[in-house]
Amino acid sequence: MVLARSIDALAQRRKRSFAQQPRPERPALIAVLLVGIVLHVPDLGAAEPLRIGSITVITEDVYTAEEAKAGSAYAIVNSLHIRTRESIVRRLLLFREGDEYVDSRLAESERNLRTLGFISSARVTAGEPHDGVVDVTVVTQDSWSTEPGGTVGSAGGGTDASFEIREANLLGLGKEFTIGYSTDPDRSGFGVRYEDPAMFGRYWSGDLLYAENSDGRRTRLLVDRPFFSFATKWSIRALIDDETLGSRIYMGGAIASEFRESRANLEIEAGRALVASDARAHRLNFGIDFESREFAPLPEGGTSALPTDREYRYFVAEYEYAQNLYRKVDFVERDARVEDYRLGTQLRVRAGVSPAFLGIEETTGILSVSMNRGWVLPGDAMILGGFSWESRLGARNRNEILGLDLRFIRRSGDEHPRALVGRASLRRGRDLDAETQFFADGDTGLRGYRLHSFSGDSSLLLNLEQRVFLGRELWQVVSPGVAVFVDAGNAANGSHAFDLSKLHWDAGVGLRIGASRSPRSMFRLDFAYAVDPDPLGRDGWLISFSGSQAF
Question: Is residue 449 within 8 Å of residue 534, measured between CB atoms?
């Protein structure tokens, strides 16, 4: 009994003690509960980001299975061609299974694939989302990659020719090997070249060239891991280029002087993205750029007035801003092949210094600025604009060059596609190196005039061309089209190049042959009539032809 009364008394005291403590107010209690929910309970309304599900890669041959049914010749072409390996296409994509799904990276991957010469078309499409993932299908179609033979071209009365064996997709690995002979009005020679878009891994490209020419030789090695997407964080580039060649200075359409020129370049640069999003990128590049130019008389004799030898050892820094905005258009430059035109702003500012303490005669700086942007206009048209300026600082030859480029494109028509294309290009030089000249001739877009007809430290070129395409292939091989054009231009010293009353005019018609199954997808044949004579009194009709558009 005594023990029971003691326990009961202890319980009563604890009950009174608890009753005397202050009770929390109801609003405070609710606030505490809400804080706990926020801190410990996940937001049930926030959706998980979609992920990349399966990636299906389909590599089509030169002719698809359906196209090859049209005749045995198409099946034979496919049997002689090694199709691009699926692993090569996968390696060049900007996404993997399990990555977060970003629509713009699919578009970037498609653009990157289209830049490869051995691929004639590329499509990267996303399926409907399911179970938190998006399945992606990649379809590419090969170009005919083995090209024995070569090309013959003429621009401004000078003939270019190349005879080569070129494999643009060696063993289906996307590697290119070329061996051949080429000749143009300036030189002829034999060369070997190897290009690899993934030499040391994903987007580590390599380019090796060796050439023995009639006026010298060239050795070139480039290893490049660029900013291959807007989300890429870093880049690296190394170039060694050594060349000896015969150079000429022209005046009045004729050779004024000839000499031997030796060029050597060493460039090593690395870049880092300050901002790398799928919409835009801010990047910094740092590196070295060593270059030298040496001039000597030709072995068989030549001019006694030689340009001044130059040597620079620059430490360089560059800022780049790039905006991810493109437009896909076909039937402009390459017949049915889709092309990507940059509309987003791209700005580059580059500066460097070559200090005298590195053994250079004097300290020299270099500064350059460039900007490109496009605008969409009503009527399915667009304008692409570009500005560039570069100059040495503190040098005797500043080699200051101002460039302005404007390009107009209006694409129309469905059954018979049409493209109205215009160009305005201006170059203004001041205190140029002696061997630097600008030309207005058949090679630069003034198709009625022979090579080197007009030359100077400044130039202006204007072109307007209406192209009409058939819009379909004949025999699954070629697609013909026609063009009518007007060209105007001049090159002279100082502001004389921009005197509109002194422009030289030509007009003409042309034939365009699209060959979508070949890496060189366009053949151009133009007949141009020069309105007035060139400095040597030549006028009338001139025929030009090549494997690309004139401008």
Answer: yes
Q: What's the CATH fold of domain 146-546?
A: Porin (2.40.160)
Q: What is the pLDDT of residue 181?
A: 81
Q: Which residue has the tokens 């006026």?
A: 215
Cα–Cα distance measured from residue 265 to residue 463, given in angstroms and rounded to the nearest whole number: 35
> The pTM is what?
0.82
Cα(419)–Cα(471) distance, integer angstroms: 12
Structure token digits, residue 131: 């179970």
Distance CA 277, CA 544 (A): 45
Both tokens of 74, joined, read 């198409």
Q: Give me the count of residues in the chain.
A: 551
Cβ atoms within 10 Å of 230's Cβ, excluding its own: 22
Give the Cα separation of 538 and 155 in Å (integer).
Answer: 15
User: For residues 26 and 9, what is the distance between their CA atoms, to the nearest angstrom?
Assistant: 32
Pick the CATH number of 51-142 from 3.10.20.310, 2.60.120.260, 3.20.20.70, 3.30.1330.60: 3.10.20.310
Report CA 385 to chain centroid distance, whole Å.
15
Amino acid at residue number 22: P
Distance CA 513, CA 511 (A): 7
Most confidently modeled range among 44-48, 166-170, 405-409: 405-409
Q: How far is CA 524 from the centre of its chain?
A: 22
User: Distance between CA atoms of 76 and 83, rounded to whole angstroms?
Assistant: 13
- pLDDT per residue over 311-369, tens digit each? 999 999 999 999 999 999 999 998 888 999 999 999 999 999 999 999 888 899 999 99
> How many C-beta neighbours within 10 Å does residue 496 have?
12
How many other C-beta atoms can be found within 10 angstroms of the C-beta atom of residue 109?
Answer: 21
> Rounded CA gap, 476 and 168, in Å?
21
All CATH 2.40.160.50 domain ranges of the chain, comma separated, are 146-546
| Spatial separation of the C-alpha atoms in residues 377 and 358, rounded to whole Å | 52
Query: What residues does CATH 3.10.20.310 cover in the chain?
Result: 51-142
d(Cα 391, Cα 399) in Å, to the nearest integer? 6
| Separation in Å, CA 384 to CA 79, 326, 335, 346 | 42, 11, 20, 12
Torsion angles phi and psi, residue 501, rounded to 5: -75, -15
Among 360, 506, 370, 501, residue whose Cα is nearest residue 442? 506
pLDDT by residue (tens digit) across 281-301?
999 999 999 999 999 988 776
DSSP code string of 259-286: EEEEEEEEEEEEEEEEEE-SSEEEEEEE
Tokens 């496919």 appear where?
Answer: 78
Which of 291, 199, 311, 304 has the alpha carbon at shortest distance from 257? 304
